[in-house]
Amino acid sequence: MAILEILEFPDPRLRTRAKPVARVDDSVRKLIDDMLETMYEAPGIGLAATQINVHQRIIVVDVSENRDEPHAFINPRLERIGGTIESDEGCLSVPGFYEPVVRAEQIHVKALGRDGRDLEMEASGLLSVCIQHECDHLEGKLFVDYLSNLKRTRIRRKLEKQHRMQA
Ligand code: K1U
Ligand code: ZN
Fold first, then answer.
1. Which of 26, 39, 57, 136: disulfide with 141, CB 3.0–4.6 Å?
2. Closest ligand 1 atom, CA of 6?
């Protein structure tokens, strides 16, 4: 397994729309295992392939307290069931910033699992929020896009400054 580099906002590669996975083979399973290792090490509760500069429609999540309930979704499709939930969101690609975002409270997810078989799941609360956040990444969308231009610009400038200092 391997820990992969996570792209940071405003890297333009985070704006790439990911392509569907045509076949779930060993290379896809290895990628999922590497994504889970990278997510746990960060630490985070989710990760999309886009964030590690792989533009395939794959996300992983684990919102459990003991960090022992990993989920992988390949080619995920979401249906909104109902309700709205506002919660503070963070992002491993926008480190150090947490802001409130409004999303659907309950969702239905259809995808392929790590074994390549059809998978369906209903999710609510943090799991629902995290899956929606990760699916946004596959569209090239970040949680900062839900914020005001002023807030997004402030975050971008602070991260650009940090990146200059690190270079
Ligand atoms: O997509 C990502 O960058 C991962 C992101 C997911 C997320 C967090 C909060 C709301 C929605 C989606 C993170 O995991 S940020 C880190 C974080 O929230 C966290 C890390 C360790 C323990 C608990 C939370
Ligand atoms: Zn994120």
1. 136
2. 3
CB contact burial 29-40 (16+ within 10 A = b; e otherwise): eebbbbbbbbbb
Residues 6 or more apart from 27 whose CB is under 8 A from it? none
Question: Which of 91, 126, 134 to mutate to test ligand 1, by most ligand atoms within 8 A of the CB atom?
Answer: 91
Q: Find out whether 101 and 146 touch, Cβ atoms under 8 Å.
A: yes
CA distances from 8 to 64, 81, 96 (A): 25, 32, 11
| pLDDT tens per residue, range 114-139 | 999 999 999 999 999 999 999 999 99
pTM, whole model, 2 decimals? 0.98
Residue 132 CB–ligand 1 contact under 6 Å: no
- Is the CB of residue 96 below 6 angstroms from any atom belonging to ligand 1? no
Q: Which residues pair with 56 in a beta bridge?
A: 19
